[in-house]
Amino acid sequence: MWPKTLFLLIVFNLTYARYTQKRSIDLIAAHGLITDTKLPQDLIPHEYLIQIHPLPEGVFNGKVSINFTVQQHTDTVALHFHPDMELLESSVRQFTRSDEEIKTKVPIETFPKSLIIKDVEKEKKKPVISFILKEAIKEGAMFEITLIYKGKIFNDTSEGLFKSTYVDPQTTETKWFVATHFRPNLARNVFPCFDEPGYKTPMVIKIGRHKNMTATSNMPLLHTEPMENMNDWVWDTFEKSPPMATFSVGFVISEFSQIKNSKVLKDNHTLTGYNIDMDVWARPNFINALVNVSSKVNQSIHILEDFWARRYPLPKLDIFALPNYQATRPADSWGILLFKESELSGKGSWHITQELVYQWLGALATPFWWSDAHINNALVRYVTAYTTLKMEENETFNNWPMTMLYSIYYEFSKRYPHGKSTAIKQDSTSAKTELIFRMLNYTLGEKTLKKGLQRFMADREFKTFFGDDIWNSITEQARIDKTLDEKISVNEIAGSWITKDRLPVVTVTRDYKKNSAKLTQRVYLRERPHDVPDQEKFVWWIPIVLVKQTNLNFQNCTPTVWMKREKEIKIENLPEKDKFIIVNPEEIGPFPVNYDVDNWNMLSKFLCTDNRKKIPVNTRAKLLHDAWNLAYAGDLSFATALNMTLFLKYEREYLAWDPVFTLIDHIGRHIDSSAVHKKFQSYVRILLTPLYEELGNDPQEGESEGRAHLRSSSKVFLCQAGYKPCIKEAQEAFKKWMEIDNPDEGNPVANQYICPVFKWGTQEEWEFGLQRVIQFPPGRKQNERTYLLKTLAGCPNDASKIERLLNITVLEKNGNFTDTDVYLIFSMLTGGANGYTTLFNFLKKNWDEIKLRLEDRPHLWNSLITSATSVFKTQEGLDMVSELYVQRQSEFGTADFVIEKSLKNIKEETKWSNDNLPIIEKWLDNYLAVNDVQTTTKI
């Protein structure tokens, strides 16, 4: 799918990453934790005393005491305990009488008493240690287990208890620090514990440190005392925490500088008279880059306290910018937040806000088990988005939720959503659930949703919760506010969306004589064939919010009616036949909407007038996105869908343009093996050239992020479509690389120029790139070589370039190319018709020799057959692959199933092409005639 999709993927990843951090108890990995080793339920912890002494040598000494009561008669105390830790001493004491001992009047004076540990067992391949007692312990009694142990500090990952270093520029000394990152279940790596989210207990934490360093933990410092037998070392003891899960424990020991005693004040705030001690920490030569962090935190906390109607749960907050922090996500212990330096010093506040949300949702109220991770994650993301928008950070966040919506539309409309990827499944389910909260915010009203969530937090603070607790609280509030019918529950509404790996499409068919319309719902399927099992059984609770041309009021989001798991409903009192309607404006619910052709045409004409801005930009984007995706799925004529792009001639809001770039990519890729493709490229140039020329080639000082995004996108797609100024600019930049004395020392050319040169440039330029890959120095970053190889394979229009690369890597077995390189080349050639057609012809021409070379590498052979045969989309391609299958039917070996699947897929794609290409071509012919454009591209 590359290179046409490369830019889109980069933009998607950068944008989507802003609000899809895989976090904490909500990690996508949480799916795997559903089956994490569970401890027996016969003991309940009540309090921890944790004592940790990290040493510079990369080890730590630890001591933990856990008070617990017995729920069920047992002779075993089982705890989570990392296999790498070494147990040195253990003891168990009984403090109070059991229920049975109270009945038999055992004297209370005999307590506390020590119990004999008969045996200690470590479970193989499981992080569990069991202490077998000589005598069983009985219900109702309170005990304490004390363990002394030692463990390793890890340097290669920023997980568990980890150590890192940095150089102090003033003294040139190497300084070290240690920090913790226990989410989702890594507390067991540092202290024996009941390491499950359902166990929330108060903690007292005691940290050993050198006197020149500073220790911070979840709670404020209580006192400091000298360490026995170790000069210059001290113990810091911190105040007892509220009940919290083990993954919320955290501490940092460092010589960092701080922005000290910043007060988060509650002036003019609903929660007055309360201060938070908030310190920002970083290495001394970086601390000045963080002067704005306090104000961001201040603003976020104000909004979040108002949202939850609960003040920040702890008396202090420490925020760290860590050098060489390797984790992919920030670490949010309760009261301590750890960030990469770049995350904390950046312009936006999304990262900070999200970690602050976890101080309430995850720390104050905690999911009981990982099975509710996606709901916790979804609500965190929703509240983060809510807070960010309230902070009016529109510049960095005004694309929410469109990018996320588009991606889940594509995922859930596949024949087999997620493939075999649990990570994609978890993330898309969480994203969909986030959108359900957004839908409820609109349809029930922001006031009702907020009060419902406040009700939930008031009930579950310092406790654990299940997903249904959230939905029940919102339901109760909606009934109080009378924004939801007594017979309807939010659980039922949300469940109809969350439990399906699908989304609906609503089709609106108007009866213009009766001023009414029939609305139907069914599964939205974009990928062919639409043969999903049991799709007729899928129904949703769908809010129908309706806007009429006669009253373009986009503020009223109260549903006209709910489709209550009904396949079909009818609505009345619609406008006259010359007035359009819009259903689901602003993407209130995550579903596309189709209309009859007359309504689509009225929308298209209206958008081409000066009145189009009466329709908000998100809704303009939705109409365009829905139209072309429904056409792609076979539910709407492409003539109608392409008519919906005509208003872009006048459109300059980048959110409205966003769907267009995906359209160009998806449709262009689908038709690039046909004669229609050149006409489509001409259409792209006509569409984008005025926009790009108006924006200018160079960024302007202080311009918006949206404008920069629009310029970058339009430039990329113009280059792909053969826009001459772009090609010239790329070649001039590339020439500088070709003229330097030692081109292998580094690449001075921006990545944006490389693909256009390899696609539209000369054989000499492409050959120069090939030699840079072959002669790539081992000391340089290998990802630079990978990018270059991708462009060499995926970009060229000239089949001879591709064939030369295949000869070198497959037939000549050039030692500079690995199997991984060859696999990458095969994959890249599927991105365009020129690539996979050339690969097919190469395979057919050199079948015997290739088969001989790859017969002992079935993964490469299967990859070759897949890439060479599976991507054709026309009758001509079907005939080519069918002929090869007949000729070599007994020779495919391990790729037998691949070629059979390819033929089946090509038949579906051929049907799509037969149905749609004539319509697309006719529309393009008319469009090009109106614009008086020749389709021949001369570079």
TrEMBL record:
<protein>
    <recommendedName>
        <fullName>Aminopeptidase</fullName>
        <ecNumber>3.4.11.-</ecNumber>
    </recommendedName>
</protein>
<keyword id="KW-0031">Aminopeptidase</keyword>
<keyword id="KW-0732">Signal</keyword>
<keyword id="KW-0336">GPI-anchor</keyword>
<feature type="active site" description="Proton acceptor">
    <location>
        <position position="355"/>
    </location>
</feature>
<dbReference type="GO" id="GO:0006508">
    <property type="term" value="P:proteolysis"/>
</dbReference>
<keyword id="KW-0378">Hydrolase</keyword>
<keyword id="KW-0325">Glycoprotein</keyword>
<dbReference type="InterPro" id="IPR050344">
    <property type="entry name" value="Peptidase_M1_aminopeptidases"/>
</dbReference>
<keyword id="KW-0482">Metalloprotease</keyword>
<feature type="domain" description="ERAP1-like C-terminal">
    <location>
        <begin position="580"/>
        <end position="907"/>
    </location>
</feature>
<dbReference type="InterPro" id="IPR042097">
    <property type="entry name" value="Aminopeptidase_N-like_N_sf"/>
</dbReference>
<dbReference type="Pfam" id="PF01433">
    <property type="entry name" value="Peptidase_M1"/>
</dbReference>
<comment type="similarity">
    <text>Belongs to the peptidase M1 family.</text>
</comment>
<feature type="domain" description="Aminopeptidase N-like N-terminal">
    <location>
        <begin position="45"/>
        <end position="247"/>
    </location>
</feature>
<dbReference type="GO" id="GO:0005615">
    <property type="term" value="C:extracellular space"/>
</dbReference>
<dbReference type="GO" id="GO:0005886">
    <property type="term" value="C:plasma membrane"/>
</dbReference>
<feature type="domain" description="Peptidase M1 membrane alanine aminopeptidase">
    <location>
        <begin position="297"/>
        <end position="482"/>
    </location>
</feature>
<dbReference type="GO" id="GO:0098552">
    <property type="term" value="C:side of membrane"/>
</dbReference>
<dbReference type="InterPro" id="IPR045357">
    <property type="entry name" value="Aminopeptidase_N-like_N"/>
</dbReference>
<keyword id="KW-0645">Protease</keyword>
<dbReference type="InterPro" id="IPR027268">
    <property type="entry name" value="Peptidase_M4/M1_CTD_sf"/>
</dbReference>
<keyword id="KW-0472">Membrane</keyword>
<dbReference type="GO" id="GO:0005737">
    <property type="term" value="C:cytoplasm"/>
</dbReference>
<dbReference type="InterPro" id="IPR024571">
    <property type="entry name" value="ERAP1-like_C_dom"/>
</dbReference>
<keyword id="KW-0449">Lipoprotein</keyword>
<dbReference type="InterPro" id="IPR001930">
    <property type="entry name" value="Peptidase_M1"/>
</dbReference>
<dbReference type="GO" id="GO:0008270">
    <property type="term" value="F:zinc ion binding"/>
</dbReference>
<dbReference type="InterPro" id="IPR034016">
    <property type="entry name" value="M1_APN-typ"/>
</dbReference>
<dbReference type="Pfam" id="PF17900">
    <property type="entry name" value="Peptidase_M1_N"/>
</dbReference>
<dbReference type="InterPro" id="IPR014782">
    <property type="entry name" value="Peptidase_M1_dom"/>
</dbReference>
<keyword id="KW-0479">Metal-binding</keyword>
<keyword id="KW-0862">Zinc</keyword>
<feature type="signal peptide">
    <location>
        <begin position="1"/>
        <end position="17"/>
    </location>
</feature>
<dbReference type="Pfam" id="PF11838">
    <property type="entry name" value="ERAP1_C"/>
</dbReference>
<dbReference type="GO" id="GO:0008237">
    <property type="term" value="F:metallopeptidase activity"/>
</dbReference>
<dbReference type="GO" id="GO:0004177">
    <property type="term" value="F:aminopeptidase activity"/>
</dbReference>
